[in-house]
Design goal:
The complex is a heterotrimer of chains A (303), B (326) and C (325). Chain A is mainly alpha-helical. Helices cover 69% and strands 1% of the residues of chain A. Chain A has one domain: MetI-like fold (Orthogonal Bundle), CATH 1.10.3720. Chain A has eleven helices and two strands, in the order αααββαααααααα. In chain A, strands 1-2 form a two-stranded antiparallel ribbon. Chain A starts with 16 loop residues before the first helix and ends in a 6-residue tail after the last helix. Chain B is an alpha/beta fold. Chain B has two domains: 3-91 and 171-312, P-loop containing nucleotide triphosphate hydrolases (Rossmann fold), CATH 3.40.50; 107-170. Chain B has helices at 47-54, 81-87, 99-102, 109-118, 125-138, 144-148, 157-169, 187-204, 215-219, 239-244, 249-256; strands at residues 3-16, 19-32, 36-40, 62-71, 74-75, 92-95, 175-179, 207-212, 224-229, 232-238, 305-306, 311-312. In chain B, the strands form two sheets. In chain B, strands 6-7-8-3-9-10-12-11 form an eight-stranded mixed sheet, sandwiched between helices. In chain B, strands 2-1-4-5 form a four-stranded antiparallel sheet, covered by helices on one side. In chain B, a hairpin with a 2-residue loop joins strand 1 and strand 2. The longest helix of chain B has 18 residues, at 187-204. The relative contact order of chain B is 0.14. Chain C is mainly α and 325 residues long. Chain C has a domain at 86-282: MetI-like fold (Orthogonal Bundle). In chain C, strands 1-2 form a two-stranded antiparallel sheet. The longest helix of chain C has 38 residues, at 230-267. The relative contact order of chain C is 0.13. The A-C interface holds A 1-2, 142, 145-147, 149-150, 153-160, 230, 234, 237-238, 241-244, 257, 261, 264-265, 267, 269, 272-273, 276, 279-280, 283-284, 287-288, 291 and C 15, 18, 23, 26-27, 30-31, 136-137, 139-145, 148-149, 151-152, 155-156, 163, 216, 218, 221, 255-256, 259-260, 262-263, 266-267, 277-278, 281-282, 289, 292-293, 296, 300, 304. The complex binds adenosine-5'-diphosphate and magnesium ion. Residues 47-48, 179-180 of chain B line the site of magnesium ion (MG).
Amino acid sequence: MTDTQIIAPVPAKAETPFAQFRAEFFESKIAVGALITLGIVVVLALLAPWITPQNPYDLAQVDVMDARLPPGEEAFSGYTMWLGSDGSGRDLFSAILYGLRISLAVGVASGVIALFIGTFVGLFAAYVGGRVETLIMRFVDLQLSFPASLVALMLVALLGKGVDKIILALVVSQWAYYARTVRATALVERHKEYVEAAICLGLSKARIMFRHILPNCLGPLIVVGTVQVASAISLEATLSFLGVGLPQTQPSLGVLIANGFEYMLSGRYWISVFPGLALLLTVVSINLVGDHLRDVLNPRMKK
Amino acid sequence: MTEILKVTGLCTHFFTRAGVVKAVDGVDISLNRGEVLGLVGESGSGKSITGFSIMNLIDAPGRMTGGRISFKGRDLSQLSETAWQDLRGNRIAMIFQDPMMTLNPVLRIDVQMIEAIQAHEKVSRTTARERARDTLGMVGIPAPDERLKAYPHQLSGGMRQRVAIAIAFLNKPDLIIADEPTTALDVTIQSQIIHEAQKLTRQTGTAMIWISHDLAVVAGIADQISVMYAGRIVEHGPTDYVIDNPRHPYTYGLLGSVPSANKRGARLFQIDGMAPNMLALPRGCAFGPRCDRAVDVCAAAPGMSQSCTQKFRCHNPVPEAVKVAK
Amino acid sequence: MTVFIIRRLMQALVVVFLMSIIVFFGVNVIGDPVAMLISPDADQAEMEAAIRRLGLDRPIHEQYFAFIKGAATGDFGRSFIFGEPALKLILSHMPATLELAFTALFLAVAIGIPLGLYAGLYPDSPISKGIMAGSILGFSLPTFWVGLMMIMLFAVHLQWLPATGRGDTGTFLWFETSLVTRDGLSHIMLPALNLALLKISLAIRLTRAGVREAMGQDYVKFARAKGLSPRRVILVHVMKNILIPVVTVMGLELGSLIGFSVVTETIFAWPGMGKLLIDAILQLDRPIVVAYLMIIVLFFVLINMIVDILYSILDPRVRLQEQGA
Ligand SMILES: Nc1ncnc2c1ncn2[C@@H]1O[C@H](COP(=O)(O)OP(=O)(O)O)[C@@H](O)[C@H]1O
Ligand SMILES: [Mg+2]
């Protein structure tokens, strides 16, 4: 079309930004469903020690006689194993909830650390400007030209196993996404009127960065953050599945899935499948929430 | 004179989430062979949509909701999509406003011209190519052989618009709809293009609907003028009559805002207010709120009145005696 | 054009150089080079001899130059496990990986672009919504998990396709490949599809966004106003415009496919260099790890460079900018 104006939807009544955001977020049934699912997953993981029939890592509570029971069988000690048991007789339901705790903890921890580092670097780059900024952003671009999974794999190849090393690998592979986001937003904001007004008022550069520009980065950061946490969880599971992530003593969902892999070909599907479903539910619901957050928080994407 | 195009009561509405936009709401057009109709109005008044409706190129959420279009005596309402394809670019062609956007950036000029010929005629590539070259020559493009091998971005805006005009004339259509073809160009190039187009319509006997928001441009080329406001024709008549004695206050205003040599120094007349919100048109006469001649009856929509010379849609028209300040 | 290629080559060299520093310091500063480069079974005397032989007692910059010199001549040391030169081992596993990655790339383009085209042309149809939901899943599901499910469904349950190994290979031109034998083809199906999944989703999204954008452009409306058939409008006017960027992005993904094949190869026991890497990590066979890292970096840089150059050759708009510059 040559010169048609698209009619913009009538703007909503003046509400607080948060109320408006909430109203818009709850418009999507899928996103709300995903948020609820995610809430349940997190609560279950937090409450694991109190709601599981057994502590799967307390040897006194695990009986090898219960090994490889199919879902719904009754365990030796009386309770029903709704999701079956694994190769060494652990109740899978319990193992999954404990595994979720580890997966979530690793994913969130690395996400948050990466967020802080990335935000700081991005703001710093925008703050100093000039050569240093170019140099930093060149490096960020260079790193982003490699997929995060590959960077993480390279790092664990060099570092070896362990919770701290996995978190380090995840942080290093993800901080650049945050840095790029923050710097891009800061660049846009830097030229807006209110920032120029603040400069005229003689406010210090650091103050402008933290008080004026950083709050504007929050929206994009939240969006990037949700997606990155989901991918951190999924990446950790992948590395652990490959045997180069978390050790057997820290059985995250990825470790559980790997342990069940050998039984898969003989038809004992549940040992891998149920931890996998838990992983899936977590990652997909975070992604769906993130996807919708992007639509709500990014005005350009609005239809 | 044979009538080429007759449009009666054309309505094209857009069903958007925010409401129904009556972009075209009861438009009549009648055009004879070789005649040029100028369609004038502010941006957003529905001129382009009128053109696209005649081409049956309205996309969702828009739809032609009423009216009849007959072309060379044939009613087009029952035409199948393949029959439309035969018609488009062959008997009715269109030129768009922005020459930077109308040519496909990744296809060479010759590809874009030859396909337009071969879509309607079984001719060899070589024949089609020769015809493309000759037509480029006709619209005043130097070294057409080289231009054929170029990509659009290698040509200037004026050149590109000439190419678009050449494409429109390729199949010697009966009707060309030119949608603000010169708006995006420099004034000097603008007049060259108008001259070129005028020459070609004379040579080929092609009728033309020349759309513009600039009454001065249209006055120089059109035989008849239709003035459009908020989806409706508010005044229609032969160019000389409409220019010399506009009856609708809106036309009067448009004319007043055209700078011309013989009223230099006079204050340019401006139409007050903003273009209307198409989602919430005023009741009654859509121009009412901006009109300095508005009276009480304007709260009811005016019908079309007919004078000896022209038609207009106004309860309190500019009197015949009053002339625009000269 | 030549200037552009030369500039691009220089850039590539700089990146490789930077990465060599990172890998080298990764091994020598973050990691323990003695543990990394010398077999853990060695006793004290052997260890000291090895340290001297490897030059680990020399200053770090000298060591770096020795490393670079070795790397440039393809010498990354010998595998602890196989006793063969690390580079030779990796090269011998490379064809299997490349074959898998290219097949996956082909699948991604061949499946993703038509689906994305459909979803872009009919955004409101239920099928399109299904396609888009599928692509969201494709993005969120971990590859290894989908691989497991594929094995369970197609290999264990339905028994349609084999789950592991590469199958028979045949010779095509100079290559040893499983793409030319029936058995080989049936073996590559599942792993290639598994590896392609993420990229299919990517191709769907890119194509759909491109089609939606192009459909609203004047040049498409103009093409329709010329009386062209919808077929020609879509296949020539729309597709030609979006294929160039989509194929470029997909080409850039080849590197990540090679990297990702680590996961797929492990699940499907595909004898490529990814599997070799994981085995090497698990068995602390460091020379192979280092050689793999350097080779994958080289791949990435090469692919990025080739795609960049091809893009500038293919797209008339970019081509002109280069001329103008
Ligand atoms: N796709 C669309 N969706 C909603 N409204 C539209 C669409 N296309 C055009 N319109 C409306 O139709 C009216 C007429 O547009 P148009 O014919 O392009 O005006 P002009 O006279 O400037 O050519 C405008 O008010 C515009 O808002
Ligand atoms: Mg228009």
